[in-house]
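look at this one:
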Amino acid sequence: MKKLFSTEQIRKIDSLAINKFGIPSQILMENAAMNIYLTTLNQFNFDPKVHQIGFICGKGNNGGDGFAAARHFLNNNFKVVVLHLFNKSEMSQDAKLNFEILTRRQKADKNIVIKKYKTEADLNLFSKCIALFDAILGSGSTGELNSSLKNIISKLNALELKRIAIDIPTGLNSNSGFGEIIFNADFTITLAGLKKGLFYGEGFISSGIVEKADIGFGANILENLPVDSFLFEASDCQKLLPIKKKDSNKYSTGKILMIAGSKAYPGAAELAAISALRTGAGAVILAFPNSCKGLLKNKYPELLLHYYDDKKDGFLSKENILELKTKIIWADVISIGPGLGRNVKTIDAVNFLMQSHSSKKYVIDADAIFAISEKRFSKLNLKNSIITPHMGEFSNLLGIAQDIIMKDRIFYSKQFAKKTGAVLLLKGSRTLITENSNTYIIESGNEGLAKIGSGDVLTGVISGFLAQKSSCLNAALLGGFLHGATADLQKDSKSVYGFTASDLSYNLHNTFKKIISNDLSVHRKK
């Protein structure tokens, strides 16, 4: 599990290196530049005999990193084009120093072109470049870009070359993972420590492959810093998997009551229930409306079915919760929501269930999330619950517009988790799991998950882990990662267009095998 740092923490480390350990800032910048050069060549097969490298640089230390990195490419016989957006008088001290070194080199070296940006036509300097480095703003910038810079970034994003961001892509808030117009990097070389905003939201979309480059102080200093954000990776899964004892039986490995499905959405119930069994749960009872039982395909004889008396209207009611009392008591986990519908009686039934059986463990998804929205959740005990909304459901849950939440998903996730005590799994690009003050970003998953039924499979997988005595946090972490990793394997075999939710459920066993054998690679490219 990798630690992810805030911009403020990285700044403190910079200050510590300079002021406590006496490392001059120029040395830190030189170390960064050298490692930017080495990291780039390790990623790409650039050839100085044929390839030209471009740099667009701002006035701060990020621009200074760009000027210094350009010099290392020049020193290694690459042709280099540098476009700077500000006059020398506006540059920071270290940026100015490296800019001056480059300008002196220009007088003696035909392989470098340096130009001050004046109009959009100057961007044509990069027309023959194989790659372009973005060294405009760096992680110090948090506000919206001005209109001129937005226009420049839009033009750069249209160029046909490799785009490489130094530290973070311009336009991205490295804490919140948000930005309106962002440099669309294929590769990001982030300096000193991994910034959390690179790994979720717009940051994940715009950062491409992310690698860290050291700047010259000990890694142990960073590792000793307390953080509240983490990247959950393939290597973290194996140690969290529930242990299957040799003397286990079907009731000792987890009993789930799955309350799901309605006359409108019968398929969601089966997808969720069978996925729980395929995750290792010992027994799953699927509670389903009696009048709709003909809608179930019933192709899984291993599912235990209970058809409750729905009075022929096809939806769950408060009376059905009373009918299910013995099964509620029997279950280790109550999983509720997939395909349940939003009938008024169903909303009342969900809230009645959670109030009258508040000590049970719950996985709450889909229509059950809708049922507890509009501040009803404030009356419920959610400390033993995992709640799995997508952005629309989370917006409805909080009563806050989606576009506001998207500007800082981690902030709102933490607010909700602290207030309710629940473990929150917020679906999206990428999935965030939050418990109390800590947030975990799930490294797996791809755009092929944007299909109906995928969330129902996730509900079943999480329920299966929770029933096997995993904590709420571990069940959410394992479920979120396994679900995404299965999608990644399906992407390899069927493409993001070709796999369905049923494919995900059916192929969970292949992902388990790879996790157990420590043979699971995760797609890091966009």
User: Anything to note?
Assistant: The chain has a mean pLDDT of 94. The CA atoms of residues 8 and 140 lie 9 Å apart. The domain at 235-516 is CATH 3.40.1190.20 (UDP-N-acetylmuramoyl-L-alanine:D-glutamate ligase). Residues 472-498 form the longest helix (27 residues).
